[in-house]
Amino acid sequence: MTKNILVTGVSQGLGLAIARAVLAQGWTVSGVSRRLSAEYTALQREHGPRARFHAFDLSRTDDVKSELFDKYLPFELPLHGYVNNAAVAYDDIVTNLDAARLRAMYEVNVFAPMMVTKYAIRHMLFNRLAGSIVHISSISVHTGYKGLAMYASTKGALEAFSKNTAREWGERGIRSNCAVAGFMDTAMSGKLTEEQRQWIYNRTALKQVTKLDSVAATTVHLLGEGAASITGQNIFVDSGTI
Ligand SMILES: NC(=O)c1ccc[n+]([C@@H]2O[C@H](COP(=O)([O-])OP(=O)(O)OC[C@H]3O[C@@H](n4cnc5c(N)ncnc54)[C@H](OP(=O)(O)O)[C@@H]3O)[C@@H](O)[C@H]2O)c1
Question: 137 has which bridge partners?
Answer without folding.
Answer: 180
